[in-house]
Amino acid sequence: MFKNSNKFTVGVIGAMKPEIDALKPKLENGGMVTVSGIEFVYGELFGMNVVAAQCGVGKVFAGICAEAMILTFKPDVIINAGVGGSLTDKLDIGDAGIASAVVQHDMDTTPLGDPKGLISGINKVYFECSQKYTALLEEAAVAHGIHSEKGVIASGDCFVNSEEKRSELRNEFSAIVCEMEGGAIGHVCFVNGTDFCILRTISDNGDENSNNDYAQSLAKAAAAELEILDEFLKRLAETVKEDT
Question: Does the pLDDT of residue 18 top 80, yes or no?
């Protein structure tokens, strides 16, 4: 499918259109294909193969997208970029949360004696991100003067909108950001042996005002995200050149 299938391949998954629309015009020698109802755009960028898709909102859509991307394009690494709610005073709107690991906070078999968030069958609560690519995200944020914090990002099929839930996620998982896709993508990548990293710029604080903050701050958060994503891809390309 790629013009040169031997090149390093990076997959980009976004929950919403801005992340993917910004990449489309930059991709060369590529095309588009629909798999499992998801439109994948692909081509060459900075000397790498890049495939990008808007997965949609929530863990099921995110999991479908990640699995289809891995089976169809076999990326060397997947980056999931989007916005999220801050769970810490260290992250304000427009800042960046970079995952050291992801967890699915709404996975709950505690009545059976399991810890909260445990994924039965593989017996994991946390899915660790690639340290190599996480470090590149941190460098990309610094390059654009965007404050970032690294820590656990918690995913669940709900929009967090209360101080009670915000405190619960912080206390139970030591999470710094809440969102709705990264945990599922990390789960799929782990099962397939694919490296991944997760970026979330802050659109709200997950409290009772999160719905209003999200609407007012989405553009600011998305702009910061796109700056980091573009810088990450440039730095990743340089790393790939050094390794070959």
Answer: no
Residues with catalytic annotation? 19, 204
Q: Which domains does the chain have, with CATH numbers?
A: 9-235 (3.40.50.1580)
DSSP state letter for 102 = E
Cα-to-chain-centroid distance, residue 172: 21
The pTM for the full model equals: 0.95
For residue 117 the two structure tokens come to 């968030």
CB under 8 Å, gap of 24 or more: what pairs does 228-231 form? 228/81, 228/96, 228/137, 228/140, 228/141, 228/144, 228/146, 228/199, 228/201, 229/12, 229/19, 229/22, 229/79, 229/81, 229/140, 229/199, 230/22, 231/139, 231/140, 231/143, 231/144
User: Could you read off the pLDDT of 156-168 as tens digits, one per residue?
Assistant: 999 999 999 999 9
**CB neighbours of residue 208 within 10 Å:** 12
Handedness of CA 13, 94, 85, 166 (dihedral sign): positive
Is residue 87 within 8 A of residue 176, CB to CB? The reply is: yes
Amino acid of residue 222 = A
* The pair of three-digit structure tokens given for residue 202, joined into one six-digit string: 């802050």
Beta carbons within 10 angstroms of residue 121's beta carbon: 7
Query: Residue 204 is encoded by which pair of tokens?
Result: 């709200």
Q: How confident is the model at residue 1 (pLDDT cuts 50, 70, 90)?
A: confident
In DSSP terms, which residues pair with 83 in a beta bridge? Answer: 201
Between CA 11 and CA 52 the distance in angstroms is 6
Contact 76, 132 (CB under 8 A): no
C-alpha 55/C-alpha 78 separation (Å) is 13
